[in-house]
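Tokens for chain A. Residues wanted.
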């Protein structure tokens, strides 16, 4: 067997095994050393390959795709700093628990640490952010090596998915010549083949005596809260809301919890909890006895302060497998069990706790008052505001669509102004590391599945990943970009740094002064800059009828935005304190 045949069969067996394990998409960044992997993926009859020239953008594109599909996506790059450009997205995938297969090509061992070009240290280069690392063997002609390749592929796919999902990294040293020979026979196992390592995994569930003990503990209290932070599973919403109705408890639902949208009963969902908890005086008057939290810590900073200020609250954190997501530093108790099964088991438990009904009614009334104040229109009818742009977006977003939200102010406005809706809308964001990196690429990765996707983000975040728009042009992806342009980093205007006027604009405000219409033209998008609410509604409606990229630029003023938000929060505080008797 020649080296080229050994290379071809080794790589083909690896790629084919990924298909039989469940892989359907790979994102490839062009390069020479990665030729065996790239062209073999492209040649495989059942795996779709996507080409993205910028590795940083490519990795975030794969991240968004994997998040939307809730299954692993592979990405392939050449050796050297190409792999290093994957790092930000791998960090995000690790913290947000997204499965990725990171396949990096490398120089063979004799070309390492000798001054060869495009050769850097790639062994375990992503450190703890990779769930598993494997330095792959050089392709050989021994029959056992084909089984070796299949075994590593199956293990990689399973490891990325099992437990808390995350990225795995396989490093492939290749010698020249690099081009496989696809004229060889029997490269693929066929569509009816089985995975090399089929797996059977069960869900974690509390034992009956553990469930009895938990219910006994919870029954000792009168006032409780269910909290759901960022998470991807759309089926959790009904389970949590059913438990809330059975036990008559309020649910504080993060915008990324998947609880605010859908057909499930949302009568106990308090979507305005962030606005309610802005006031310390209000926080001091509504202390619960216990909290059960599902998902990651919510976006809301007032909620984090609420937890920190009341360390005596009995705090339970539900994790499906493992982990320690409790940044408040409270003496929390961890429940390692499948969240849906836990809710169902608690709902069906023979001893249902009896809680203070006035507690639930108080939360319902506060939520009603806060929503009314947040949605009240005054000068909004004359000028566009960032918060009410979210309301218009939510009203216009199509059924069975996704809203991808950028960090900084957009996710916070989503938290405040995205109210409950019966429409089936997924809300996604990159809240693992909370960075602005690759947001546009992630949204386009989500759009690759064919659903309508709306991206809500600020001008600095948009600028940071402008080249990600190339995928929209290249693959004719449907993406509506709602660009909040306040000419700089709007979130800093809410922080203490805003008082340091001498250097604030240069270091924090960072005005861009960019005409984004040209970016739209560069990537063949449709550009609109509405001046009124009517214009915005029409632009959104038109964008969902349009095939391809639409950019809707909403021009706002940073200082006016701060004043508008603070006025809303102050009015809510006054109304709530009057209601609470304070």
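Reply:
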């Amino acid at each position: 067997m020649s080296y080229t045949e050994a290379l071809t069969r080794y790589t083909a067996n690896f790629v084919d095994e990924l298909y039989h394990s469940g892989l359907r998409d790979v994102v490839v960044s062009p390069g020479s050393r990665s030729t065996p992997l790239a062209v073999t993926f492209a040649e495989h009859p059942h795996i779709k390959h996507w080409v993205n020239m910028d590795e940083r953008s490519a990795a975030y594109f794969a991240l968004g795709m994997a998040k939307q599909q809730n299954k692993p996506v592979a990405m392939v790059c050449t050796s050297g700093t190409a792999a290093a450009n994957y790092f930000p997205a791998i960090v995000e995938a690790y913290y947000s628990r997204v499965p990725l297969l990171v396949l990096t090509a490398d120089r063979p061992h004799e070309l390492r640490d000798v001054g060869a070009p495009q050769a850097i240290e790639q062994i375990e280069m992503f450190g703890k952010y990779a769930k598993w690392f494997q330095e792959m063997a050089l392709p050989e002609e021994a029959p056992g090596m084909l089984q070796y390749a299949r075994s590593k592929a199956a293990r990689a796919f399973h490891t990325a998915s099992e437990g808390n999902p995350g990225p795995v990294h396989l490093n492939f040293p290749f010698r020249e010549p690099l081009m496989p020979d696809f004229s060889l026979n029997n490269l693929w196992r066929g569509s009816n083949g089985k995975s090399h390592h089929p797996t059977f995994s069960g869900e974690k569930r509390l034992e009956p005596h553990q469930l009895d003990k938990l219910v006994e503990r919870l029954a000792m209290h009168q006032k409780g809260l269910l909290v759901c932070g960022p998470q991807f599973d759309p089926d959790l919403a009904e389970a949590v809301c059913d438990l809330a109705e059975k036990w008559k408890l309020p649910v504080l639902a993060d915008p990324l919890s998947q609880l605010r949208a859908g057909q499930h009963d949302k009568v106990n969902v308090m979507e305005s909890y962030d606005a309610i908890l802005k006031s310390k005086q209000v926080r001091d008057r509504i202390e619960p006895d216990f909290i059960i939290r599902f998902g990651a810590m919510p976006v809301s900073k007032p909620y984090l302060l609420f937890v920190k200020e009341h360390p005596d609250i009995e705090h339970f954190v539900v994790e499906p497998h493992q982990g320690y997501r409790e940044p408040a530093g409270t003496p929390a108790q961890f429940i390692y069990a499948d969240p849906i099964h836990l809710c169902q088991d608690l709902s069906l438990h023979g001893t249902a706790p009896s809680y203070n009904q006035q507690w639930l009614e108080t939360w319902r009334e506060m939520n009603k008052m806060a929503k009314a104040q947040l949605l009240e229109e005054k000068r909004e009818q004359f000028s566009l505001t960032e918060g009410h742009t979210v309301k218009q977006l939510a009203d216009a977003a199509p059924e069975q669509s996704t809203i991808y939200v950028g960090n900084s102010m957009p996710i916070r406005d989503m938290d405040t102004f995205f109210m409950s809706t019966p429409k089936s809308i997924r809300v996604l964001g990159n809240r693992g590391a909370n960075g602005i990196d690759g947001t546009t690429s992630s949204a386009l990765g989500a759009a690759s599945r064919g659903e309508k996707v709306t991206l809500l983000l600020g001008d600095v975040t948009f600028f940071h990943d402008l080249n990600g728009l190339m995928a929209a042009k290249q693959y004719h992806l449907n993406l509506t970009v709602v660009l909040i342009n306040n000419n700089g980093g709007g979130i800093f205007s809410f922080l203490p740094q805003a008082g340091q006027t001498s250097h604030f604009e240069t270091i924090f405000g960072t005005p861009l002064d960019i005409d984004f219409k040209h970016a739209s033209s560069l990537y063949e998008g449709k550009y609109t800059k509405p001046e009124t609410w009517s214009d915005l509604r029409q632009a959104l409606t038109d964008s969902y009828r349009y095939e391809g990229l639409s950019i809707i630029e909403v021009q706002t003023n940073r200082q006016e935005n701060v004043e508008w938000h603070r006025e809303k929060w102050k009015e809510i505080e006054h109304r709530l304190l009057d209601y609470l008797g304070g």
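The chain has a mean pLDDT of 93. The first strand starts at residue 25 and ends at 28.
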